[in-house]
Write a structure and sequence with these properties.
Layout: H1 3-32, H2 38-46, H3 60-72, H4 76-101, H5 104-116, H6 118-123, H7 130-150, H8 153-169, H9 174-186, H10 197-219, H11 223-232, H12 241-255, H13 257-266, H14 270-273, H15 276-298, H16 309-324, H17 326-344, H18 346-353, H19 370-383, E1 388-391, H20 394-403, E2 413-415, H21 425-429, E3 439-444, H22 450-453, E4 456-470, E5 473-485
Parallel strand pairs: 1-2, 1-3
Antiparallel strand pairs: 3-5, 4-5
Helix pairs in contact: 1-4, 1-5, 2-20, 4-5, 4-7, 5-16, 7-8, 8-10, 9-15, 12-13, 12-15, 13-16, 15-16, 16-17, 19-20
Length: 491
């Protein structure tokens, strides 16, 4: 078979493997009843107030959600399908990177391996900023690989556009710029490109694409940057090796146990680092992984914070395993797919095996019960249709704002923020101090005391919402009708 014929075969394998898994995930969403996450409800609420930036994140995911839900409605499956699509496109970029740096076979298996990663499997079912970040990180890396081949202007512009979209998705994108700069300096063939006007034109495109968010940041006291700084470098705490160990153990599950076990076999090999293609991918991945690991040691880090690093690491792992341990690679993919399927069908498997679901045995417990509470709150809202929903909790505002809709219309949301310190998006635009007129339904996990009630002319407890999720998990909320807000400073 000709070389071109081989490439077609491997491209077809990548295409059907990537979209086959994407379709399976859509089927899980349609029939698996995966609960809406608080962050998804939060971002969806942002989409009703389009801006060029938000308190904790850049705006791109919100723009996408606004467009998609405007066309298809805001059901959970529609919201979550955005993540399925972005990760599938990221996997196709992985194929392109592998095919250019190694060969089409490596690209195909790398794309399938990437789609099989447990972390990607989980992130594909929840619309978070990681979804577009993964896509545009992979797109930037693919564009860079094409650009350095012949210093082609169109590929530098493509790389810049992908990088700009990545920065509009999540500021983690900046770590890739560091890695690619290191790769340029480390490879003698590419050092002269640092002075290439085509490269700088690509950088200009990146800044241009990112510029709406930059303008928003400049006019909003750089609040997103300050928030990011606060949760990363500004927390005064000594290093904790236990935190780092827990984080790294979690990464074993995120990458998949067999792939993670293979990593020490190849990542430190001098011969691998002498390969320009492998070195580029490691430079693109390890700065972010190292930075997040340091953050985990210094304070804490979420498992998904280093997710884009697995794009390059997957490609190098597949390249090495295909050459030295092919059966191990196929076993790793199989184990990963079984782990992902176990997570997707956890409730059905627990039922089949007779496992009693509780707060301790159900990994989805944090997401359960909110829909039922929202239905109960909707009944309260029918009695007070003009009342805005008020709370001191971002989580309650986001989830109950989504689940307590009447005729598909969400309530007006207001934030209780007597400290005056911005904590989340609702504090920026929905502080009750800026919207004092009218009546409110204050929803709280605890009964309100005089510190709150005394700041209103009238207040009464109108409902106690209660949902028993499991014997050891009961969600209870108190709902107060309040009018005549006197201000936070009132006695």
């Amino acid at each position: 078979m000709s070389g071109a014929g081989d490439r077609v075969v491997w491209l077809r394998l990548a295409w059907w493997g990537v979209w086959g898994l994407a379709l399976y995930r859509l089927a899980v969403l349609l029939w698996g009843d995966i609960p809406l996450d608080v962050e998804e409800a939060y971002y969806l609420d942002w989409a009703r107030h389009l801006e060029a930036g938000y308190f904790s994140k850049p705006p791109l995911l919100t723009w996408v959600l606004a467009a998609v839900t405007g066309l298809l409605g805001d059901g959970p499956v529609v919201i979550k399908s955005v993540a399925v699509f972005f990760h599938a496109v990221a996997a196709l970029f992985v194929y392109g990177i592998g095919a250019r740096l190694f060969d089409a076979r490596t690209g195909a298996w790398a794309a399938i391996t990437f789609q099989s990663l447990p972390l990607v499997g989980v992130l594909s079912l929840f619309a978070s900023t990681d979804a577009p970040l993964m896509c545009f990180w992979a797109g930037t890396l693919y564009g860079f690989v094409r650009a350095v081949e012949r210093d082609a202007l169109r590929w530098w512009l493509f790389t810049g556009a992908m990088a700009g979209l990545g920065l509009l998705s999540k500021y983690t994108m900046g770590a890739l710029a560091v890695g690619l700069a290191l790769a340029l300096v480390a490879d003698a063939r590419w050092r002269s490109l640092v002075a290439s006007p085509r490269l700088w034109a690509g950088l200009g495109v990146a800044v241009l694409v990112w510029s709406p968010n930059l303008w928003w940041l400049a006019t909003h006291d750089w609040v997103t940057v300050d928030h990011t700084r606060h949760i990363t470098v500004a927390i005064p705490r000594a290093g904790d090796w236990g935190n780092l160990g827990e984080y790294l153990l979690g990464q074993v599950g995120a990458f998949g146990p067999l792939l993670a076990l293979s990593l020490p076999l190849w990542i430190g090999r001098p011969a691998l680092w002498r390969e320009p293609a492998a070195r580029l991918l490691l430079f693109a991945s390890l700065p972010l992984f190292g930075l997040v690991s340091y953050q985990a040691w210094r304070h804490e880090a979420n498992l998904n914070w280093a997710a884009p690093a697995y794009i390059g690491l997957t490609l190098v792992a597949v390249h090495w395993l295909l050459a030295h341990a092919r059966r191990w690679l196929f076993a790793a993919i199989g184990v990963n797919l079984m782990l992902v399927a176990g997570l997707y069908h956890y409730h059905a498997l627990a039922d089949a095996l007779g496992v009693q679901l509780t707060r301790k045995t159900d990994p989805y417990f944090k997401r359960l019960g909110w829909r039922e509470l929202g239905i109960q709150l909707a009944d309260v809202r029918r009695r007070y249709p003009r009342a805005a929903l008020l709370s001191d909790s971002r989580k309650l505002l986001a989830l109950l704002g989504y689940h307590s809709r009447l005729n598909g219309r969400p309530p007006v949301l207001r934030s209780w923020n007597p400290s005056g310190r911005w904590r989340h998006q609702y504090d920026l635009y929905d502080d009750i101090a800026d919207h004092a007129d009218g009546e409110f339904l204050f929803v709280s996990r605890q009964a309100l005391d005089d510190n709150v009630l005394s700041r209103f002319a009238q207040g009464e407890l109108v409902a106690i919402l209660r949902v028993r999720v499991y014997p050891d998990l009961v969600r209870r909320l108190y709902v107060y009708r309040l009018t005549g807000f006197r201000g936070y400073a009132s006695p």
